[in-house]
Each structure stands twice: as structure tokens, then as C-alpha cells.
Amino acid sequence: MTTTCSVVVDGVQCDKPMHTRGYCAMHWMRVKKSGDPGPVGKLKQIGSTGRPRKTDWQHGTAQGYQYHRCRCAACKQWRTDYNVVYRARRIANKTFKHGTEGYSCGCRCDVCDTSRRTRFAAWYGLNAAQAKANASRNGEVRRARQKNLAAYKVSERDWRRLCQRYDNCCAYCGERRPLQREHVIPVTRGGQHSIGNLLPSCKRCNLAKGTKLLVEWRKS
Q: How many domains does the chain have?
């Protein structure tokens, strides 16, 4: 089974990972927009012959990241280092725009702070459920780290698989209700924050179990 893009133009095959229906993300967007995946590499302008591709360029340079769009570890590290230096220079020269990018550059004036609060309030009004879920997940990681315990990243894909394993029902009472992440061994009792220590639970069972172990909860 192929895992790369299937587009071949002039004997050159796209080496980007497959996104859907045999296309990478870039060529799939072109197919949806115009019905033609277009050339391999950067999209050529109408009437232009395109820039000649060089072969003697080095990774970890601006030429590799920007011109050739290379995303290897060396080129990504160059981009990270460049952003750090660029941000420090803008902070020193105070060339950033207040109210839009000033807060990310370290400015804490009234204009930047008010603009940030306004954007956050607008986003929270449209995504209240997601904001609460993010705060809950961040709290789980924070409590685990405060106990000097390992806190592993639990992706949404792993969580959906776990819920599907229990038919999107509570693992304790078996009822189909809104599910929460419940630690089998509570973090306060030394349990790790990982997918192996989580079960889907309804709010009633989660609050009833609290910080008890499963044996203690069943006995009570």
C-alpha cells in the first residue's frame, strides 16, 4: 500500500505523504478547486516558465526551507532559530504592531492586553465546550507534574478509540451519557496521566469514585 502522493508530472513524482484519495494535501486542494492536481512542487503562474530547480543547496538554510520548501529536521531547526532572532530584534527595536502582534512579542501595554482579552473572549464565546475540555486536560497534566509523575500526551484519536471500545458508554454504569476522562488509579494516589490509566466515565460515576481506588469504591 502506497503512502505517498500518486501525482506524476513530467516523470517527477511527488514525494509528499498521502492525504486522501491518493493525493497529498496540496494536490488534493488543487483537485477540489480546479479538477487538476497541477504540477509537482510549487504552483506555477500562468504564462511563466517556472524557476529552475537547483541541486547544490544545503539543508538548514533559508534556501532549503523557503525556496525548496524542505521540512527536514535541519531546515525546521533553522526556521526556529530564525524566529527567535527575528522576534528578539523586533522587541529590541519596538517595530511590532500594538494590538495585533505586540502581546506575543512581550508587550504588556493596555492596548495589547485589551486586544488579547477581546480576542480570547470572542473565541471562548464560540468554543465554550472546547475551552472547558482544554482546561480540564491541562489541569490533569498539571496535577500529575505537581506530584512528580509522568504525564503522557493523550491524543483525541486515542481517546475516541477508547470510547468506541466501550460503545461510547460509561465504563462503570454502562449508560450512554456525556463522557469524561476518569483515572482508574487517581493522580493523587500515584496514578499516571496516560491512555492506559484512563476510562470513559459519566459525570455521576466520576464524581462518585472521586479519589478512591476501584476496589475501595466498589466496596463502599
A: 4
